[in-house]
Write a structure and sequence with these properties.
2 copies of one chain form a homodimer. With 157 residues, the first copy, chain A, is an alpha+beta fold. Helix content of chain A is 34%, strand content 23%. In chain A, the strands form 2 sheets. A 3-stranded antiparallel β-sheet of chain A has the order 1-3-2. In chain A, strands 5-4-6 form a 3-stranded mixed β-sheet, covered by helices on one side. In chain A, α2 packs across α3. The longest helix of chain A has 13 residues. The first copy, chain A, is flat. The N terminus of chain A is likely disordered. At the A-B interface, α5 and β6 of A face α5 and β6 of B. Chain A binds a DNA duplex (30 and 30 nucleotides) through α2 and α4.
Chain lengths: 157, 157
DNA sequence: CTTGAGAATGCAAGCGGTTTGCAATCTTCC
DNA sequence: GGAAGATTGCAAACCGCTTGCATTCTCAAG
């Protein structure tokens, strides 16, 4: 809010996207706006389904930053609620941009052969989850749910 | 069916359990009945919640076989439907004996602090899952779902 | 514009769970 | 008892991920 325009920077900086919201969010969390950070978010913005760290890394292309940097940034961005982490059980975490409202998550139907992903509607498990927590005395309840199958394209032998 | 009694073995072999079903199953799959194999199944029989490879290994106690052997056996036993694999998202696979009928699975409510596990009733997702498969043209559909929270014992600071 | 404190990055090493190649051993069938 | 083939132990390797440390970068204050 207090800073008029962040675009006085080096020529190779990515300046295409309207950074307003992002920037605000980043600054709220005392995070610095760095090239890798912006590039990662750009990559996620361009893809609709969750990406692995490796996929993000190759999508970065020219701005080829260290894997450790991506790992660290994904933690940071997740902690700030900017991205959401998913686990499809294949050993590699996947990340997706959080929706605008920040709340609400959804689940996925993942092809076990080609990894094609169908994003499902909003989660319908919240009531059940709350009941469950109450019944067993658990707090801070959450869940993970993913569906797996062979997508139409992969069914032909 | 054709083999009367498999109990003519070495003294340190575990022979307490009625091995009939197991043995039959093992033989159907052309598997050999080995000491590690039996011991692993014994360990699983004695525990109600899913165990990690490391937990299985330490539970084996005296019969201290190689970790690689356990890993290989878990794959084999899973492929044969004798055990079921669960993934609680902490990086270590967990295994449970399959129920008698071989079909039907359940889900878990896992404490994120002490790993205490509540086993939930039979899965209620099968209808939904089938609908989903039909709607999107997927086959061989399956799913994973686990709940996480702080158990009553772990809530006090 | 300069500057400096602290944040972020790159690099390399390390870690935990898991897999694999290979030679030695064990199970089962004849 | 013996042979074929499955299974095991061992060691090395793999994979995703994390971490320590020195260097570089960001940003706000002067």
């Amino acid at each position: 809010m207090s800073r008029p325009c962040p675009q006085h920077q080096h020529p190779h900086r990515l300046i295409q996207q309207p950074l307003s919201d992002l920037t605000d969010k980043l600054r709220q969390g005392e995070l610095k706006i760095t090239a890798p950070r912006q590039a990662i978010l750009d990559v996620l913005r361009k893809h609709s389904s969750p990406l692995t760290i490796k996929e993000i890394h190759t999508s970065l292309g020219k701005l080829d930053c260290d894997l450790a940097t991506i790992y660290r940034n994904m933690h940071t961005l997740e902690r700030m609620g900017l991205v959401r982490r998913y686990d499809f059980g294949d050993g590699a975490a996947r990340f997706e941009l959080s929706p605008e409202d920040g709340e609400g998550h959804h689940h996925h139907l993942v092809c076990t052969r080609c990894a094609r992903i169908v994003e499902l509607d909003d989660c319908f498990l919240n009531d059940f989850q709350d009941q469950l927590a109450r019944r067993h005395g658990y707090t801070q309840i959450s869940h993970r749910m993913e569906f797996f199958g062979l997508c139409p394209n992969c069914q032909a032998p």
